[in-house]
Amino acid sequence: MELHHLRCFVSVAEERHFGRAAQRLHLSPAPVSRAVRALESELGVALFIRGHHNVRLTAAGSALRERAAEILRHADSLSDYARSFRHRASAITIGAFHLSPPAVLDRTVVALRNLTMWDVKIELVEPGQLPRRLAAGTLDFALLNPTPDCDHLPHQPIAVLDYVLVMRGDDPLAACQHVDWADISRRDVTLPPDTPFPSVLNDLHDFMVCHGVTQFDRIDSLDVAAMASRIRTYRSVIPSLSLEAGGPWRVFDDPAFAVRRFRQPPPPYVLSLAWSPDTPQRTGIDPRDVLASVAEPGALTK
Known about the structure:
It contains ten helices and 13 strands.
């Protein structure tokens, strides 16, 4: 059943004349007549009693007129709602922070562009603000590490990244293929500040303490270049995301540094895709479709 047929039927029912109904619909009488006959054929009932100068509704036509008008009102309101939807938002915004793994961020952008006709924009945000911005609806999606602030937000893991230990290229530990915790129990281990990822850094700190590490050097920076300078200047060692994270972490892919894996690694860094609770309704995107395109194998089971 076509809405065009219903629209012609309702117009003729209200005008009681095919010619006037055609003028109202900006059509000629012939296609209006054909649409009504097609509807009568589909419904299996006559809708009008046709006279020389006017038409009258049959009993079936009278009974169906209001139902058809109601269907058209709902269809028109749906179109209006869709138009207002387009006006309310012209882009989908992904929140990320400057250390977000570029490969994961790029895959997320590509997935969203394949799922929508809207523009997809990236907004770099302080990590601690990501949950608040999602809750307020000023971000649609965000790449973040789940913290207690995210408990009320829908989110799913999309990438699992291992930690490695970074040191100077001439550090004695560089001769080892893997690092044992006993090897750094008396070394200065540099960690960035305990914000804005308190749960991540606290978990890492607590794990190292449980494995005998006692000397920590906190620096007031999340800048990877600053961490690299700390290694070169103070000969400290630093737990870092593996080089596969890409972006700023590739600074350690240099002969000046040595990157070694732990024999008994700490819990991995889990990166999640979170979204605002009203994002599916507002954008028409099912986050599961994004996750299916972005998540690394095994990430959704972590």
